[in-house]
Amino acid sequence: MAYLDHAATTPMLPEAVEALTAHLGITGNASSLHAAGRRARRTVEEARETLAEAL
Predict the structure, then answer these.
(1) DSSP state, 55?
(2) Rounded to two decimals, what is the model's pTM?
(3) pLDDT tens digit string along 2-46?
(4) CB within 8 Å of 44: residues ≥ 6 apart
(5) What is the residue extent of each domain of the chain?
(6) Helix, strand and coil in the chain, % to nearest 5
């Protein structure tokens, strides 16, 4: 039986927790031209591609 009443407390998949934790310490404005901004932009674009593939 699937429990579908998680509302706003749905547990995250371990893979999602790992990905989130890995990026929490990384700072950078994805619209900036400096190295941290370029890394942030790359991360955003990779996430968009992954989501697009899933959909």
Answers:
(1) -
(2) 0.66
(3) 777 777 778 889 999 998 898 888 888 999 999 999 999 999 999
(4) 30
(5) 29-55
(6) 60, 0, 40
Residue keyed to tokens 């932009």: 41
Written as six digits, the tokens of 51 are 């989501």
Q: In angstroms, what CA-CA distances link 14 with 19, 36, 37, 42?
A: 9, 26, 27, 23
Alpha carbon distance 36, 40 (integer Å):
6
Write the CA distances from 10 to 5, 7, 32, integer angstroms: 8, 6, 34
In whole angstroms, what is the distance from residue 13 CA to residue 42 CA? 23
